[in-house]
Structures are given as structure tokens and as C-alpha cells.
Amino acid sequence: MSVKDIAGQKKILTDFLKANGLRVTRQRLVLLDLFLKTHGHMSPREIYAAARKHHPRYGWATVYRTLKLFSRANLASPINFDSRTARYEPETAGKHHDHLVCTVCGKSIEFYDDKIEALQEAAAAKRGFIPKCHSLEIYGVCSKCLRRVK
After folding, report:
1. What is the pLDDT of residues 81-90, one digit of tens each?
2. For site-directed labelling of 23, which of 38, 67, 100, 118 has its Cα 20 to 30 A away?
């Protein structure tokens, strides 16, 4: 994510906090910066471990509560792959994607497919349903794990 994008996300967080009568703290801004610069889908424990490398005084509760704030501010999306611990990814407005999840190593591959999106929209329309959002996860074995098995 570019510096400009991160600055925009920080403004969104700052505006959200102020609008909800919450304090804009250095910890929240540092955690947002860390979260946005990491790639992939991180669990709260992984984000906590990364934060403690540079800021040893950050507590588990602070990290956990801050991730919940990011979700409420539409800056992060929680994802539950295979009923495991929730993982978070930055909310990327206008950049919807789905996931392929390896059941062996846990790797997640993001993808987007116009045909799948059209089928989902058609299925909803056929039933008179107006979707607000959706997520699609396909579980299987990634190519790297397949090579190891053979």
C-alpha cells in the first residue's frame, strides 16, 4: 500500500474515532500503519507479535480491541477460514476478491473472476434478493503441497 493510501486510511480512522467520541492515540495509528504494511491475512496473535517487536509495551488487549475498531471503521475485514481463528485483511474499497485456501499449509490465494461474480449476482436476482456483500472461499490443496504429496 502506498504512503498516500496509508495517509488516507489514517484519516478515515481519525475521523471515525472523533465521530464516535474516541481518542486518537499513537498506539492506534501505529497499529494501523503496521497492519496496512503487512501482506496476507493476519491473525490477532500475529499482529500482536509483529507490534511487540517494535513496541514491547503494547498489550494483547490493546491490539485485539484496536482490530475490532478497524473493523467498525471499515478499515479491516475479519475472515474465518475453515472455522479457525479470525484473520484480518485490509478493507480495499472497490477491490473485491475471493480466496482459495489450502487445507494442508493454510496458504490463502486471492483471486477475482468476473464470471463467478456474474453468476452470484444472477442467482440473487433470480430469487429477488439484493446482496449487500459476500465472500467466497474454496478449500483444497495448493500446488506446492500437491508436489510434496506426490
Report:
1. 666 677 788 7
2. 38
